Amino acid sequence: MSPVDEEQMLGLKGLREFLRVRTSYDVLPLSFRLIVLDNDLLIKKSLNILVQNGIVSAPLWDSHNSRFAGLLTSTDYINLIQYYCQFPDQVDKVEEFRLSSLRGMTLAPQVPYASVSVGYQNKLKNDRAADVLVLTTDIEKAIGVLPLETVSVHPSEPLYEACSRMLKSRARRIPLIDIDDETNRETIVSVITQYRILKFIAVNTEPHTMLLKRTVREIGLGTYKNLITAKMSDTVLDVINQMVVHNISAVPVVDKNNVVLNVFEAVDVIPCIKSGVYDELTFSVGEALCKRADDFPGIYTCQEDDRLESIFTTLRQSRVHRLVVIDDNWHLKGMISLSDILKYVLFYGEEEYATIA
Ligand code: ADP
């Protein structure tokens, strides 16, 4: 092993030890607010609450059983949109859906729709009659039934465990659930995200992260093949379809020369549907990006020759949710997600590294 590799492994070992002695409680700020939504709330009202509070997800509470009922995220709204596209004649029903009915919709994306075009509705009716039938039954059944168990972690468990559970379940955030001593009932303490954990690592472990001298190219960090991209003129629905089919949370927007112009993220869907008018989904990506909040931090880029150490410096200093890998002329080369970084930190050199998708 070369001295640089030895240093790199030493850095990783330091980070892993840090994650084993810290807990999710340590990541939480001293004072924070937590918005929890009742599972009986109408979906359209939940959208307004998220937008008004400047948040993109919230834990759900089942007040009938006094239980945590899962996390509401932009993926749920994307599922709803997929449902709406597959059953356009049921738009009135969509308006009446409550949050509790969202969980049953996880089936919807597995019935991919070919493309969103004028002829789509008829094509679906003719070609996919069987799928439609199965789906309708499942969603009807799902309304009013208890949601599935979701991944969560106790706030006092080591942070390493929270990260590992997130990576293995492909969740981008994990709820911290405690049991109240007196009532013996579940309490939602908070939710931690991959973003917050990486920020915590970046801010608190500089002596370790400065040892990570290998470049993005050398460690193969991120995805470089079969990249999914969008054009400014594509519709929001087309991009949503790509995100669902490929299970990704962002799509770089490029011009005809593959030069990166922007990134469309799953959370960009929320402003498009907040008015309840799903017609806005036929808007172009360019129009949808104009709806971003004024404080949108922008997109972050890096190059294949950048060291992991410098990526941690960017994470420390900025609100980074992913990095677009570009060349000197802004041509798209790859995408590095926060899960790619976290997976490398936790598992590189171990058996799990190859097995976690
Ligand atoms: P995260 O899991 O952190 O939310 P993503 O869902 O965007 O991030 O990424 C999941 C995986 O897909 C990662 O390995 C990432 O490198 C890859 N990926 C991200 N965006 C794209 C894209 N546009 N095309 C192909 N692969 C992507």
UniProtKB/TrEMBL annotation:
Q: Which CDD domains does the annotation name?
A: CBS_euAMPK_gamma-like_repeat1, CBS_euAMPK_gamma-like_repeat2
Q: Which UniProt keywords apply?
A: CBS domain, Repeat
PROSITE patterns attached to this UniProt entry: CBS
Q: Where are the transmembrane segments?
A: none
Keyword check for Transmembrane: no
Tell me one Pfam family matched here. CBS
GO CC aspect terms: cytoplasm; nucleotide-activated protein kinase complex; nucleus
Domain CBS per the UniProt entry, residue ranges = 145-210, 223-280, 295-352
Q: Which GO terms describe its molecular function?
A: AMP binding; protein kinase binding; protein kinase regulator activity
The record's similarity note reads: Belongs to the 5'-AMP-activated protein kinase gamma subunit family.
Protein name, UniProt field: AMP-activated serine/threonine-protein kinase regulatory subunit
Q: What is the lineage of its organism?
A: Eukaryota, Fungi, Dikarya, Ascomycota, Pezizomycotina
